Each structure stands twice: as C-alpha cells, then as structure tokens.
UniProtKB/TrEMBL annotation:
GO terms for cellular component: cytosol; nucleus. It comes from Mus spicilegus (Mound-building mouse). This is SET domain-containing protein 4. Its EC number is 2.1.1.364. It catalyses: N(6),N(6)-dimethyl-L-lysyl(20)-[histone H4] + S-adenosyl-L-methionine = N(6),N(6),N(6)-trimethyl-L-lysyl(20)-[histone H4] + S-adenosyl-L-homocysteine + H(+); L-lysyl(4)-[histone H3] + S-adenosyl-L-methionine = N(6)-methyl-L-lysyl(4)-[histone H3] + S-adenosyl-L-homocysteine + H(+); N(6)-methyl-L-lysyl(20)-[histone H4] + S-adenosyl-L-methionine = N(6),N(6)-dimethyl-L-lysyl(20)-[histone H4] + S-adenosyl-L-homocysteine + H(+); N(6)-methyl-L-lysyl(4)-[histone H3] + S-adenosyl-L-methionine = N(6),N(6)-dimethyl-L-lysyl(4)-[histone H3] + S-adenosyl-L-homocysteine + H(+). Residues 1-19 have a biased composition (Basic residues). Gene3D superfamilies: Rubisco LSMT, substrate-binding domain, set domain protein methyltransferase, domain 1. GO terms for biological process: inflammatory response; methylation; positive regulation of inflammatory response; positive regulation of interleukin-6 production; positive regulation of tumor necrosis factor production; regulation of cell proliferation in bone marrow.
Length: 439
C-alpha cells in the first residue's frame, strides 16, 4: 500500500516547484495592487495577464488563460501613457515653453521622471514609479573596469553612449536651474547626475514607439517615445512575434499576439531582431540562444592573418571600403557570414587573379586555392577571437572573486562572452567541415 504524503511533505514539494521551473505570481504584492487601482482609475480594463517572477527572466507577465493567435493581450488607454504631452500639461510645461533653445523630447521626459520621483507620495504617477527598477545594467551604468571587458565594438559604443548622456546632462543644467521655484530643495540636489541617469535609462530601456504630434516648445528631434505602465513589464524573446501599435479608433496602445501562449506561461514581446551586443547596449541584458546573436569582426582583424608579402592589400582594402564590405562582418550560429567570407576571398585573391575582384563581390567562385585560403584565414580569425574570449572570461572570473561589489556587473559581461564563445565554437566546427574537402 502506497504511503500517503503528509502536509509538510506536500508543502515542501510546492516550495520546490515554485522556486524551480515554475513562475511565482506576484499580483498580491502591494505595489502591483496599487498599480492595478491606478490603471483602473484611468479606464484600463483588466486583462488575463498578471505580474510574476520567472526563473531565468525575472519579473514579467504571466497569462492566466490561453492566448490565441491574433488576440489583443493588452490594450492600454491613452490616459495611461506618459508622453511629452503629459510633460507639457504638468507644472513643468510653462518652464519648458519659456526655455530657449527648446529642450528635446528625451530631456522633457527625463526631467518629468526626476521631478515626479522627487515628489514621492505627492506624485500622480507614484503607483507607476514604484514598480520601476531602482537601477539599470546598461553599459552607461557600468563601472569603467567592467566596460573595459566588453568586446571592442561594444566598448566603443558604450563609451559613446556615456559621453552622449553626460553631454545631455551638462547642457541641461541651465534649464534645470530655472525650475527652482518648483522645489523647496536646491535644484542641483534634485537633478543630480545619478537621478538623471536613472531617468534616461528608464526612457531608453522601457519606452514604446509612439509618434507624437509636433510640440512647438520642443526641439525638432523625433518625438517617438512613450512610457507604458504595466505593458512595459513584458520581457523580450527573439522567438516570438507580436503586433504593437496605437489604435487611433480606440485611442489605446495595443499589443496583439501573433502566436499562441499556454495558460500560466510567460508572455513575451520582441523588441526587434537585435543581436546580444545591441540588447546589452540598449536594454542591459543578454538573450541566451538568441538566433540573431553574432560576433563582429573588425576591419583590423581582417588583415591580421594575410600574407605580409601581399603588395595589393591596401588596394584590396580600398575596394572593400568603397563597396561597403568593411562593416557588418560576423560569425554566427551558422558560421562566418557571407559578407565576411566575401571580404576574405577578395583579400586572399592571388596577384594574377586580382582583376576578378568584381566577380568575387558578386559571389562567384574564382578558384579552389582562393576558397581554401579564405576559409583558412577565417578559421585563424575565429581561433584568435576564441582565445581572446577565453582570456577575458578568466579575467572576469578572477575579478568576481576579488571584487564582490562588481559581481552582478561582471556576470553580465560573462553572460555575453559565454554566449559569444558558443557562437565562435559553432563557427569553428562549420569552418572545419568546409575545409575538409580541400585537405
């Protein structure tokens, strides 16, 4: 006779399930209860989605019922959206209208977020602000020694991003000073760089695309960002398709699923066909087994393993530049990209066949020697990047042991580098199989 399990054992089993592969419903949490009330006051109708915590992705939205293809899963009324219209209608409006030169739509949104965050309980947006992240993991927020561990193309973009945000903050300080009448505290303490960076990351990582009408008091930069409470709890997956747009008839921002979703599963949206370096730069995370993930190859790396005696190499590089073949050269899950192999085939052209360079760019096979040489150079580049990636991962591991405060940031770099290592290893195997017939 089978022994009956007691209540204690059943409770342990439930805990194991909830802490393992199952989602944990978080709709009971006070901040989400308050958000629901706030949304309802703004005419948001209840949905079959609830906040939950998921293993691997963290906080997101779970479906309480099965979703069918084409079904509207969220319809967020215009009154719930935070746009530049919201900012202009607020107490900041008169100050923005007076300031010359006009502030940008991004600066207007950031200023509003900092102001409302400072207002605390007095803010009409408190219920939304309370569920926003307290900090972000975009490269602009990472410590310099962590940014140094990023792949070179991403590191350069991260430094550009940081400089852009710092310049925006510095150029806005004069405008911030005019807002002093709105605050009891010194305006410099309200609009600190830390507060501004939090606001900038909030807009940059969470805004949906919504083209707004031109505001005469704002600069001519595109006004296309809107913050969408509750809707922005949806996490990204490169494997799903959704349709997201503002419905002019219903005056709601709608998310319509293009595929089915089972009951009690996490519901995803797709931010776009982005590789992991782009996802980390703009959103602060890495997607595992991302089909769009790739490892860029720099123009400098292209010539590293070419024969030193090739007197035509500079002419070949000029041709590649003139025809746009020095960018977007990558290794992917399916091996070296066509553009990378084409660039290498041109660079590996024998002197007597140099006049055939146009045929190479059109994808024609010039000779077995050219095919073998270019694949061999691709293999050497791949091996070189693998070695570099291993070296960085060892450094990350050592830093995680010695610098506890940076562990979460280092783990992000580690995730990116590990994913790129898997891509490179897949490419190395493919290159070996492509070279096999020539051996």
């Amino acid at each position: 006779m089978q022994r009956r399990r007691g209540r204690t054992e059943r409770a342990r089993k439930r805990r194991r399930r909830s802490s393992g592969s199952r989602a944990v419903n978080e709709s009971y949490r006070s901040e989400f209860i308050e958000l629901r009330k706030w949304l309802k006051e703004r005419k948001f109708e209840d949905t079959d989605l609830v906040p939950a915590s998921f293993p691997g992705t963290g906080r997101g939205l779970m479906s309480k019922a099965s979703l069918q293809e084409g079904q509207v899963m969220i319809s967020l009324p215009e009154s719930c959206l935070l746009t530049t219209d919201t900012v202009i209608r607020s107490s900041l409006g008169p100050y923005i209208k007076k300031w010359k030169p006009p502030v940008s739509p991004m600066l207007a949104l950031c200023t509003f977020l900092v102001s409302e965050k400072h207002a605390g309980r007095q803010s009409l947006w408190k219920s939304y602000l309370d569920i926003l992240p307290k900090s972000y993991t975009c490269p602009v927020c990472l410590e310099p020694e962590v940014v140094d561990l990023l792949p070179s193309p991403l590191k350069a973009k991260a430094e550009e991003q940081r400089a852009r945000v710092q310049d925006l903050f510095a150029s806005a300080r004069g405008f911030f000073s005019t807002l002093q009448p709105l605050f009891a505290e010194p305006v410099d303490s309200v609009f600190s760089y830390r507060a501004f960076l939090w606001a900038w990351c909030t807009v940059n990582t969470r805004a949906v695309y919504l083209k707004s009408r031109r505001q005469e008091c704002l600069s001519a930069e595109p006004d296309t960002c809107a913050l969408a409470p509750f809707l922005d709890l949806l996490n990204h997956s490169p494997h799903v398709q959704v349709k997201a747009a503002f419905n002019e008839k219903t005056r709601c921002y709608e998310i319509r699923t293009a595929s089915r979703c089972r009951k009690h599963q996490e519901v995803f949206i797709c931010y776009g066909p982005h590789d992991n370096q782009r996802l980390l730069l703009e959103y602060g995370f890495v997607s595992v087994r991302n089909p769009h993930a790739c490892v860029p190859v720099s123009a400098e790396m292209l010539v590293k393993f070419l024969p030193a005696a090739d007197k035509q190499v500079h002419r070949k590089i000029t041709i590649l530049k003139d025809h746009g073949f020095t960018g977007n050269l990558t290794f992917g899950w399916d091996g070296p990209s066509w553009r990378l192999l084409t660039a290498l085939k041109l660079l590996c052209l024998e002197a007597e066949r140099f006049t055939s360079w146009k045929k190479v760019l059109l994808g024609e096979v010039i000779s077995n020697t050219n095919e073998k040489t270019s694949l061999g150079v691709a293999q050497k580049i791949c091996s070189d990047v693998i070695e570099e990636t291993h070296a960085v991962l060892r450094k990350v591991s050592d830093m995680k042991e010695g610098t506890v405060s940076l562990r979460s940031q280092l783990s992000l770099v580690e995730a990116l580098r590990m994913e790129e290592l898997r891509i490179l290893q897949a490419s190395a195997e493919i290159l070996s199989s492509l070279l096999a017939p020539f051996s």
